[in-house]
Amino acid sequence: MRFATLDGRLVLTRDALALDVPGGEAVNASLGRFDELLKWAVGADWSSAVPFTVEQLGPPVPQPRQVFAVALNYRPHAAEAGYQAPDDPLLFTKFPSCITGPITAVTLPQGKPDWEIEVVAVIGAGGSSIPASRAWDAVAGLTLGQDLSERDLQMRGKPPQFSLAKSFPGFGPTGPYLVTPDEFADRDDIGFECFLGDERVQHGRTSEMIFPVAELVARISAVCPLLPGDLIFTGTPAGVGNRRNPPRYLQPGETLISKAEGIGEIRQTFR
Q1: Which of 30, 55, 103, 161 has minimal Cβ neighbours within 10 Å of its Cβ?
Q2: What's this model's pTM, rounded to 2 decimal places?
Q3: Domain Fumarylacetoacetase-like C-terminal: where (predicted)?
Q4: Are strands 99-100 and 172-179 parallel, antiparallel or unpaired?
Q5: Left if phi > 0, otherwise alpha if psi is -120 to 50, otherwise beta: which for 167?
Q6: Do the beta carbons of residue 3 and residue 141 sit within 8 Å?
Q7: What does the domain layout of the chain look like in residue ranges?
Q8: Does 56-270 carry CATH code 3.40.120.10?
């Protein structure tokens, strides 16, 4: 099943139709009762559904309470950054105010703004100390995101300012849909790629992650209770701008298009 937000309300989507979820104005609460929501969706009456376009959609979770992100979770990206692959997940956060929808215009800050395509896990019921064997039960679905990053601010401090540099307005575009795990042929092997203009700058498959979704859920929930609507940006593959030779950064007038199998496309235009 595919969910989205339309005018801030959680909706069930099918083709180009959107059906309001009962209580969908409270997105996080709806995700907290996700098993009940899925049962409703199976027999939903589509007679009141309305047409929509992707441009009308907001972020699948407009106001997540916690946004986790994972650094160096693909070996080629760790290598291009000059690091050994980590033995444990390297976690930071994107502040929730940066989260936006799938089709956006982003005002670039001064410095060296960069791209990082990521598949994002959306937490449903959540919980604490969730074992990896039951981790997918806590996940409502997957969406697509960009972990946009301003590298000057990120690397200015010692240690680096990861979270702040990745949380400028519009630096967390997500969407277009929250797709339930059963929709994928293999929920742990999803292909994704992003383009600047006609150039493909990144591509990968989630099966290449060092720490897959289930392990991330287990590791994070062992420390922080995972709440309905929380997001986990699961990491980016090789191809980011600051590790190119010469480095390349986002420029006004450029458009970044990101795609993921079974999820769809998000598009950011920079100004």
Answers
A1: 55
A2: 0.97
A3: 67-270
A4: parallel
A5: alpha
A6: yes
A7: 56-270
A8: no
